[in-house]
Amino acid sequence: MRPLSIIALLLTGLLAACVEPSGSIPEEDPPAGTELPPLVTPTRAAELARAAWADYWQANMGGWGGLGWSAQADEITSTSSAYGLRVSGEEPRGWVPNSASTWYDFTLEPWRLAHRCQAAATVALRATLQPEAVFEAAGESRLRIAAFSRFVRGLCLGTLAMRYETAYEVGADSTLRERNWEQLQAAAVDELYQSIGLATSSRLSFPADEQWIYGLDLDSEGLVRLANSFAARYMAAVPRTPAGREAADWQEIRRLAASGIEVDFAPVGDINRDNQFTDLTYWAHIPQRSMADYRTVGPADLSGRYARWLAAPAVERRPFDIETDDRRIQFRRGFDSPPGAYFAQLDTHYFAASRGPYLVSRVQFVRWQEYSVTSSGPMPHMVKAEMDLLQAEALLRSGARGVELINNSRVAAGLTPARVTDAPGTPRDGSWQNVEIHVEGASLWAKLQHEFRLETFGTGGALAWATDRGWGDLVDGTPAEYPAPESRAALVGWLVGQ
């Protein structure tokens, strides 16, 4: 269970130095000599580090942190008003007024949770300033708490960098420092590098029954591979424009991805435990709630129906059958999904077409459908294919090919292999606007991007939106970043009130 009372106590102390007697929030750091809150015990530090992970998880895989962000990337589609789903996919696309029922929580919830995650992880990290003997007496590992706290701080800074124009870095000296997204990205990657250094220096263990990461046993190597993978994700996905993504350090991204996860990263859900669930995985599989958007799966169509759907005015679009050689997209016959399918085409839909016929789809995401039945079991948050395809993108950007990495998923799906003789193309080739992405002779970029969209579907909160942003492939009018959804004073007030 989340130690809320502990977090409330510690945040009050941690952030009190940021609040003047008048209640305003000074722009400058507190004066030298400002008293910091006392260091917590090793046991409480471990609790806070685990609580920070829970906040990160809900900021990305919870309803507000995942669903609307997926819809604005045209990854999923829905006519439901919950979690900002319908308003995020409406056309013409644009900003929606902040209100409790539409946009506000869609941006506010991940913002708050990512800052609370930072605060909890920071308090846990400060506790490791105590001598090793204090931790040994408590039966805890100082290095374990430090490495995990750095890791989670990196994830929460990365969450903010990916989504917001500016946010705050919670400092160990009881300050909230405003940072732009570039600074947040750099801080996130630095925290992950520091976590890697700590984990590499010792043999650490994070047992599943202690709930560091839901249901997973992790050791030093596992933490290092995760940190490498998330660093690669943030370096690639955080830039706001195609030029920014192109300018990323792709040599380093390739190195990190090659040293990243070797199997899919899927924490284990348990509906009977607080926060140990994912609305993103659950809702993405429920046809009454959301379906796969045709802009994601439609480019695989061989019949010409997707091209006609795309060319039609939005109000005249109707659901259609996709004909494709891609085994990941199949027709459902009866109740059971086709073996090996990621997407099942249904005979009907459950959407309110009056809310936007262009939002209606008959393609259901079924890859991890078991979770939607029990709300327990694996909750994929990062797949090995993401690391493969980031390496392939790095190679393409360097003038090489990377066909073996593209083919790791492509050939298993029954598609013709990518070949070194294929034209490399450009990042525009993989756009949802390219109705010939499926044809023989499509460029390597087109094949890579098709693989990325289908393989990473529903795994990364805002990953699809951020990736499309960097490829220049968001629907016109879709925001590429969001301003801070509340003032500094309001954020501090919320944190202290937890």
Low-pLDDT parts are 1-10, 14-31
Largest sheet: spatial strand order: 8-9-10
* Tally of helical segments: 20
Please estimate the helix content.
40-55%
**Which whole number gives the mean pLDDT?**
90
**Number of beta-strand segments:** 11
Please identify the oligomeric state.
Answer: single chain
Terminal Cα separation, in Å? Answer: 15 Å
Shape field: globular
* CATH architecture descriptor name of the largest domain: Alpha Horseshoe
Query: Which radius of gyration do the C-alpha atoms yield?
Result: 23 Å
Return the CATH class of the largest domain. Mainly Alpha
Structurally, how many domains make up the residues?
3
Kindly name the structural category. Answer: mainly alpha
Outline:
This protein has about 500 residues and is mainly alpha-helical. It contains 20 helices and 11 strands.
Characteristics:
single chain, 498 residues, mainly alpha, Serine Threonine Protein Phosphatase 5, Tetratricopeptide repeat, 3 domains, three-stranded mixed β-sheet, two-stranded antiparallel sheet, 20 helices, disordered N terminus
Explain what the structure shows.
The chain has 498 residues and is mainly α. The protein folds into 3 domains: 269 residues, Serine Threonine Protein Phosphatase 5, Tetratricopeptide repeat, CATH 1.25.40; 82 residues, no CATH class; 72 residues, no CATH class. The chain is 45% helix and 6% strand. The protein has 20 helices and 11 strands. The strands form 5 sheets. The chain has a 3-stranded mixed sheet, with no helix packed on it. Strands 1-7 form a two-stranded antiparallel ribbon. Strand 2 and strand 3 form a beta hairpin. The longest helix has 24 residues. The protein is globular and about 70 Å long. The N terminus is likely disordered.
